[in-house]
Amino acid sequence: MTTLESLKETVKRELPRWLESDPAFREAIRSLTANLYSRRDETNDWFHQTLEEMRRERERQDALWRKNDERLERERQEAERKWEEQNRKWEANQAELKGLHEESLALGKRIDRSIGALGAHQGAAASSSRLRTHGHQYAP
Length: 140
Known about the structure:
Number of strands: 0
Radius of gyration: 54 Å
Number of helices: 3
Shape: rod-shaped
Distance between the termini: 152 Å
Mean pLDDT: 88
């Protein structure tokens, strides 16, 4: 093992004890490595700032969701109102069609009776006419 490798092994082994027992040495090492790491207060500030940004974003998203939910509820109520209106129109239309159908059936019956009566009248007139042409007089 070379002298450099031996020195590195000794530092790795002894460094924790030196840092713990020698505040001046600990500060010297911290100063040498300070540019490699964030300070605790900087890390805490960054962490709290990030948490605050996340909280604000969550509140913003919650407000958007509430607005969206309110819009959807209004749309649902409007659709329900329109559906009920269409149902009322449908029922009124069905009642009107039923009335027209009943009127049509009644008219058909009246026409059938009229045709029947006309046929009976024509039949009687034809019989009367035949009787007169054959020399018989029809007397009602």
